[in-house]
Write a structure and sequence with these properties.
Largest sheet: 9 strands, antiparallel
Number of strands: 17
CATH architecture of the largest domain: 2-Layer Sandwich
Distance between the termini: 41 Å
Radius of gyration: 20 Å
């Protein structure tokens, strides 16, 4: 089976690494000349709206998926005329736009921060008067890793901010005094079978995920699964979906979904019986889903900007290095380490050892 992937970054690369043992081959459509997935399959270098090359991709593969939600929904809709595409264009359309996303949560009875659609500075001023400060203004589309957003704490922060974010449609969200951030990785097959990985505790630095630790018997696991199930059913979803939550007052408030394999699920490569990448491929290909059970205690640390010396990383017991083959650049995710151990105390020591290497890099 040949899989077409829209996007050729590290997520596409890890999909190919998971699918190759299953006898799958891959073609990646990406405009970047140095797309890091190209070593794992055919690279069709083209813009996401290039209809001729999209048709070429559709003619070459058995099905198509995508590795990030910046792909236009129109691209997926076009491809779906010629080849199966999972997740669907409608799922992508909703997940990539924060207004559509938050409105869906509200309709499904999933708690969210207060929010308002912002089309102008006048809208922003009125929404701040209603929602109050602090609040967060985010572009409705294309924001990630802390980009396309600004925290508003004072009236001075509000002035001119709509123009500062590009005078594009935005969403204002009330600030949530959360006690923690967690994410749930879910997978749903073509037949509707659904499985969930353990909730993951996430820590960020400057808006970029730094550390994820898989939980054991999290008290809100079932609640998170319930919320995710509502979304998966509503979207008739196929594939892996990540759902990010704020922990607040003994419950959860929805932050956002990502219609794809997700950074906070990288621990599953070595830390679960079947990784999120293999399970995504199983789901979109109509194959039986794999077990989502943990294998011991597990965590993931991102390498941002550079990767520490390889020999020092892999010298740490049960530390697994994933180098993306990308040029080092400030603020760019260029690799990660997955850690695994039999107990949490050992895992914490492993995390400290890798963090020390990051600080020295």
């Amino acid at each position: 089976m040949k899989i077409g992937v829209i996007g050729g970054g590290q997520l596409g690369r890890m999909l190919a690494l998971a699918g190759t043992p299953l006898g799958m081959t891959f073609a990646f459509l990406d405009p970047a000349p140095d797309a890091c997935s190209q070593a794992l399959g055919e690279h069709i270098r083209a813009d996401y709206g290039d209809l001729d090359h999209l048709r070429q991709l559709a003619d070459e593969v058995d099905l198509v998926t995508f590795e990030f939600e910046s792909v236009p929904a129109e691209t997926v809709a076009f491809l779906s005329q010629f080849v199966p595409v999972y997740p669907s264009a409608e799922a992508l359309r909703i997940a990539r736009d924060r207004w559509f996303e938050k409105s869906m949560f509200k309709d499904l009875g999933i708690p969210t921060p207060e929010f308002a659609d912002i089309q102008s500075q006048v809208d922003l001023d009125a929404a701040v008067a209603t929602i109050g400060l602090p609040a967060v203004l985010k572009t409705r589309t294309l924001g990630y890793d802390g980009k396309g957003q600004k925290v508003l704490r004072t009236a001075a922060d509000v002035a001119g901010t709509f123009a500062e974010l590009g005078s594009v449609p935005c969403l204002l969200e009330g600030f949530v005094p959360f006690s923690g951030e967690v994410s749930l990785i879910a997978v749903r097959g073509r037949d509707g079978e659904t499985r969930f990985y353990p909730l993951v505790h996430n820590s960020h630095e400057q808006g970029i995920l730094r550390l994820s630790i898989a939980s054991s018997q999290h008290p809100q696991q079932k609640l998170a699964e319930d919320y995710a199930s509502r979304v998966l059913k509503q979207l008739d979803y196929v594939g892996v979906l990540a759902f990010e939550f704020f922990e607040i007052d003994g419950g959860l408030k929805a932050n956002e979904i990502a219609p794809r394999v997700h950074n906070s699920g990288h621990w599953t490569i070595e830390g679960s019986e079947c990784s999120q990448f293999e399970n995504h491929l199983r789901a979109v290909a109509g194959l039986p889903l794999g077990s989502t059970k943990k294998v011991g205690e597990s965590a993931m640390l991102n390498f941002i900007g550079s990767v520490p010396a390889v020999d020092k990383v892999i010298a740490i017991d049960d530390c697994h290095l994933h180098h993306y083959g990308k040029a080092f650049k400030v603020g760019r995710k260029v690799g990660h380490a997955t850690l695994r151990s039999a107990d949490r105390a050992t895992l914490d020591r492993q995390i400290t050892a890798v963090e020390s290497l990051i600080d020295q890099a």
